[in-house]
Structures are given as C-alpha cells and as structure tokens.
C-alpha cells in the first residue's frame, strides 16, 4: 500500500540558516522545499502543489508581498505565512490584506509557534476538504446542497434525513431560532418521493388564528369581511407535496384540534364551507420551544404532540457545533462576493478567532448577516475585524490575544487595531473627539490608524464630515 503523501510546504527566505531551521522544525511531519528567490518560488508553484507557502517579506532586491499577491490570485489553495525580521508594521498589515493567514516575526523566540501555526492552517484546509468529501458521499443517495456543515451533529442529522426522506412519515424539527429548521424541512422534501410537487412553508407564529385557518384551509366567498371570492388554502396548494408548519407551538388550542383531524384523516373544511375536502400532504412541523414544556403548561395538546413526534430532528445551536463556523463563514463569504460582484475575499486570522469565540445567539442567521456586513465593508482582499458588525468585533477581541499564540509585535498590532476600532466606534469616527478620549494628539492618532490599516471613514455615521 502506498504511503500517504505528506502535506507540502514551500519556504522562501534568503537566509540559509532560516531555511535549515524550517527543515529541522517541520521536516519530520511535512514535505518541506526551500528556495532563496521569488522567481524560483514562482516556478515551483507553477509545477507543484503546496499546502502552505512561508514567505519572507524582505528579500535582497525583492518584495515578498509580490509573491503573496501572486499566490492569492493564481494559487488560491495555497495558504501563506508571512515572516520577517525587518518588515514595518505597514508591510505586515499589507501582507495580511493581500491574503496571508499568519505573520511571524524573526528571530523566532519559541520555535513551537511555527508548528502551531502550520497545524492550525492545515486543520482548516482538512475541515473544508472533509466537508466536501462527506457531502459527496451523502449526495450519492440524497441531495445535500442546502446544508453546510462538517460537525458530527450535522452529519448525523443528514444520515437521519437520508433514512426518513422517502418514508413519507411526519417529522418534528426542534431548535433555536436561526439554526436552519426550514432548511432541513426543505431538504427532507427535496429527497422525498414528493419532490416534484410543491413545498409550502407557513410561519404559524406570525399569523392570527383566523388568518392562519383561512390560509391553511382556504375560504368561501362571503365567509368573512373582505372574502370577496373563493380562495384555496395551503392544504390544497400543497396537495401531493409537503407542508411545513413553522413555530407550531404558537397556534391556539382550538386550531390544534382542527389540525389534528387533518393529520389523522386527511379531511378538512374550508372556512365558510359546509362540505369536507380531502388532502394528501406530508406535514413537517417545527418549534423553537421545548414542546414538552408547552404540553405540561397546557398550551399545546398532548395528542397532537404525539401525532407530530413520529420522527424528531433536533438541530443544535451554532455555539455547540463550532466546527461548522469556519465552513459556514467561508461559504457565506463566497456567496456575498458573488452577490455584490467583489473579487474573492479571505477571512483574516483575527476575524476567524472572533467568529469562533462569539456566542451566536442568533445562530446561522446571525453569522450570515455578519458575513454579509463584512463583505460589503471590506476594501481589501482579506476581511478584517473592523469589517464585522460592531457588536461582534467590539472589545471581545482583546480576550483572544493571549489564546492566539501571538508574539509581542503581533499582539501589540492586534491590540492597537482592537483599541482603535472601539475608540472610533465610540466617537462615531470623529477624530478630534477620539483624540480627546485617548489622550493622544490628533495627528498621532491619525498616524496610528494608518499603521493599523484602519479607514476612519468607516466609522462616520452616514459618512458625516468631521466636526
């Protein structure tokens, strides 16, 4: 049996000692190639596939930023770690904006930091590749393009969907708001024998009892004020297909009695009609509440609960499946780059740290909105923390510095960016006001913003001019 190929790493540095150090530090676990010039590095990249390129920013007569830019444009599957002992803060910031995943300062006081950063990047690449592999395996039997996720919880749910989709059984989906209950309902429909018929979704929580009955059962002309003509309901519209009843626990007890009759017999009556009608729909219900608590409280019928709860799918909140955050964020970034006609963007390590440590009380919906916000505001090839919504970026980033294995220079730059972000947010981009709050002169504060790569105009409400 052929041995598994080792991850391949290209190191570009003009110092033989540094090249030898990387070979000794990484050679046992990875296939390491070295070169002393950008030209030689470009040639290797054209003919070979590398997982990571470690690039010195300052080479004799050359600028490592040129190679990083070339890798971002022509070798998107190769991650970059920028290194330097001479580069300015501005150069380091530019490296990250061009697409570098990490930045390390020479000399390396702790050599383990090299292995840590390499392993972190390879783990991210593995997660993305594994998600594609698992998805392709599942797609042999079910269509999974609606679902993005690599966590064990999501894969277990997909396997459950694969088992139940074609059985035409009732299903109850539970989970917090924003976890994707409607997406899983549609996934079941798409992989069922009813997939060529309609999928109709209704949010029961947003409708009054009278309007909900009219929408679901339909009504006869003159049944109530404004009923100027007969109108079919969703039970007729979805006949032969699937009807998704979201927030089912928000319905009244009187409505639940009528729904139970439809589930048991397939018979319903239009509002204002004297005749029964028959429907053949698959019902999938969902709730963001603990439905057993609703039964105990008397707000939900126990017999309806047991009728609906034939198959239960519980979708865990995003904070309990953090393995999915990177993959979701990457997918949403690509989606909104396409939507807003922007060139391919990457997420900076700082942004990923914030995303992975945020609580996401709004779950996938909140993450999706945050990425859309960031893509809209991003002005460089790499999304920065200041591109995220203020409530997500904020001062939270400070607590991550100690966990991010940053050296002194990196920590100082990261702190500066977080501090300036909070300062400018509090002052709405008014530089004079920010200078007073910080105790710095206006010119000094402006220079620090330039060093950190922060655009003051982002923080001015409606682009209002400085007072």
Explain what you see:
Mean pLDDT is 84; it is low at 136-140, 395-404 and 462-467. 46% of the residues lie in helices and 13% in strands. The strands form five sheets. The chain has a five-stranded parallel sheet with strand order 2-1-3-6-7, sandwiched between helices. The N and C termini lie far apart (72 Å). The chain folds into three domains: 8-131, 3-Layer(aba) Sandwich (Rossmann fold); 152-314, Rossmann fold (3-Layer(aba) Sandwich); 321-463, Orthogonal Bundle (Helicase, Ruva Protein, domain 3), CATH 1.10.8.60. It has helices spanning 16-26, 38-47, 64-74, 89-98, 112-138, 152-164, 181-190, 209-217, 234-237, 253-265, 291-297, 302-308, 323-339, 349-357, 363-377, 390-393, 408-426, 431-438, 442-451, and strands at residues 8-12, 31-35, 52-56, 58-59, 62-63, 79-84, 102-105, 171-174, 199-203, 242-246, 267-269, 276-278, 282-287, 312-314, 346-347, 382-383. It has 467 residues and is of the alpha/beta class.
What labels describe this entry?
467 residues, alpha/beta, Rossmann fold, Helicase, Ruva Protein, domain 3, 3 domains, 5-stranded parallel β-sheet, 19 helices, 46% helix, elongated, disordered C terminus
Compute the CA-based radius of gyration.
28 Å
Structural class assignment: alpha/beta
Tally of helical segments: 19
Distance from first to last alpha carbon: 72 Å
Low-confidence stretches: 136-140, 395-404, 462-467
- Give a quick account of the main beta sheet: strands, pairing sense, barrel closure: 5 strands, parallel
CATH superfamily of the largest domain: P-loop containing nucleotide triphosphate hydrolases
| Strand coverage percent | 5-15%
């Amino acid at each position: 049996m052929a041995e598994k190929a080792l991850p391949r790493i290209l190191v570009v540095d003009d110092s033989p000692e540094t090249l030898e150090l990387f070979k000794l530090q990484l050679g046992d676990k990875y296939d390491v190639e070295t070169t002393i010039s950008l030209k030689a590095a470009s040639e290797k990249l054209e003919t070979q596939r590398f997982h990571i390129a470690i690039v010195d920013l300052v080479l004799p007569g050359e600028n490592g930023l040129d190679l990083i830019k070339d890798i971002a444009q022509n070798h998107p599957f190769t991650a970059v770690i920028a290194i330097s002992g001479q580069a300015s803060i501005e150069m380091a910031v530019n490296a990250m904006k061009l697409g570098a995943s990490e930045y390390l300062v020479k000399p390396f006081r702790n050599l383990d930091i090299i292995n840590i950063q390499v392993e972190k990047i390879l783990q991210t690449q593995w997660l993305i590749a594994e998600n594609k592999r698992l998805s392709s395996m599942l797609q042999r039997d079910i269509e999974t393009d609606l679902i993005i996720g690599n966590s064990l919880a999501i894969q277990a749910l997909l396997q459950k969907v694969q088992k139940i989709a074609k059985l035409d059984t009732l299903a109850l989906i539970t989970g917090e708001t924003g976890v994707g209950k409607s997406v899983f309902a549609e996934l079941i429909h798409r992989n069922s024998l009813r997939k060529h018929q309609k999928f109709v979704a209704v949010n029961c929580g947003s409708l009054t009892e009278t309007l909900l009955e009219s929408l679901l059962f339909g009504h006869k002309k003159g049944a109530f004020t404004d009923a100027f003509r007969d109108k079919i309901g969703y039970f007729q519209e979805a006949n032969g297909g699937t009807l998704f009843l979201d927030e089912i626990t928000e319905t009244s007890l009187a409505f639940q009695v009528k729904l139970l009759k439809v589930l048991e017999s397939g018979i319903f009556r239009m509002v204002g009609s004297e005749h029964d009608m028959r429907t053949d729909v698959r019902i999938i219900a969902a709730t963001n509440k603990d439905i057993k608590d609703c039964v105990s409280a008397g707000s939900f019928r126990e017999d309806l609960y047991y009728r609906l709860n034939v198959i239960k799918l519980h979708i865990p909140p995003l904070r309990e499946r953090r393995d999915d955050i990177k993959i979701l964020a990457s997918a949403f970034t690509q989606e909104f780059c396409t939507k807003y006609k922007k060139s391919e963007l990457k997420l900076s390590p700082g942004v990923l740290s914030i995303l992975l440590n945020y609580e996401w009380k709004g779950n996938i919906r909140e993450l999706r909105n945050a990425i859309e916000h960031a893509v809209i505001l991003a002005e460089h090839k790499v999304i920065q923390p200041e591109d995220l919504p203020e409530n997500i970026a904020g001062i939270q980033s400070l607590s991550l510095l100690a966990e991010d294995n940053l050296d002194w220079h990196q920590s100082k730059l990261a702190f500066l960016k977080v501090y300036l972000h909070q300062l400018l947010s509090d002052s709405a981009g008014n530089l004079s006001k920010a200078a007073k709050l910080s105790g710095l002169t206006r010119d000094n504060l402006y220079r620090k913003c330039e060093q950190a790569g922060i655009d003051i105009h982002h923080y001015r409400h409606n682009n209002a001019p400085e007072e």
